Request: fold
Amino acid sequence: MLSVVVWLALVVWLALVVWSLSVVRAAAGSDRPVTTDPDRHARPRGPRAPFAGRRKLLAATQAVLLVIAIGSAAYLSSTDQWESAPLVGLIALLVLGSDILVLDAKRFRIGGSFTGLVLAMALLGPAPAAALGLASASIDAVRRRVRGTYLLNNLLTYVTFPLLGGAVLHALDNSEPEQGGYAVAVFGVFIAANALNFLMIAGHTRILRGGSLPDMLRTVFLPVLPWEIASAVMTAMAVYGFEAYGAGIIGLFALALGAYQLLLRALLEGQMHSEEIERRTDQLDVRHEGMLGLLLETLALRDPSAARHAAAVAHYAHELARAAGLSEREQAVVHTAGLLHDLGKEALPDHILLGRSELHPAERRLIERHPADGARLLLRVEGMGEVAAAVLAHHERIDGRGYPDGLGGESIPMAARILAVAEVYDVLTAPDSYRIPMSAAEAEDELRRVAGTQLDGRLVWLFATQVLRGRQTEHLGHIADLETELQVQRRVRGVLDGPFVLGPPA
Reply:
């Protein structure tokens, strides 16, 4: 008689899994979040809400399955499952009391009652476990005012997995508990019931609210799975200890469960906090990119060649930084500094910025201020300290005759030395420069001529042998494209965060 019931429980369990998967698949690709609350008692006026027929069918199916589950629990109920009143009361207190520490995980709520229900399956039987599951879901519904199909689904879920798991465990031979076989079975039923619980709740949410079931599995189920496995081990050990030491072990288990729930709550809260920070960081990054593009376009309104020059310097500098073996963070610093290296020129008068005549000494002094002016502005932006240092020193010379601080050799930050090579090459070859443009070969010869005095000799060699290799036939417009370089900036966003110390590299 009992074996027939077990087989029937297994068939019903499999049928519920297949049913949950089928309704989720039927909803895939076509569901959208409904615009009206599906659980409102009063139907909104106007057109009929989307998928209202499907929700009615779902509610009817849930109601029928709930009646079957409750009827099955009553049929399987026996006196021996209820005869230990103290044990029933202790587990009931554990199930209902642990719901005080409810955990919110995105669109789901995880309560400690699940572990207590598995104990009820193992130590009491299917009928008490199902009754406690129904009581837990009912109390939670009253407290949170759950209605409609959500209430039906919660009641069905919290009756179904305790009933099926309890029927399986109740049918197993528990005559030799010291061998641990029954505890292993409890562990297996815990994991299976946990998966069924998630599938029924997530499938219902997927149908009524939309979303992706794989995403729910990835963001809700998998992050807490190690904790659930740990809880399954604790539960199996509690069952084993109960057989060996009696009901006192359940009290110790309740304390351990409380600590576990607090740790799991801290994990989920930390995860949600991290995701919120990531979301806000992404928003700030998008705004930063937009402001960067807006700033460069504004500079280009005064000097049409400014955007092209900024893009070219950023591109060449980024390639040279990669050839020099710099880290991704350092490459990001160099690229950003290349885009913004002439930011300080915004303060120059038009006759200096746009003029092509010989500069007077006073005008040259104004020109020589633009690295410091640009760096000062960049230091106002959090996370741009290293970029500001590169901008400040990009007109320094290896022989110490540059500006604004007369640094020389290794005292010049590596990013600034890279910018210097990239800028000199673009000035020599650009068609919109203030001088007659050189060919790539002529510009390379000029770079080699000033290597060791104006420019870093090793960087000049890397630029000539690795960056310029194969680029003599490449059209400059494919290199000096602002939008392309802004896309590169999007790919390296976020790596500029971190501490900054103004000074030369170590």
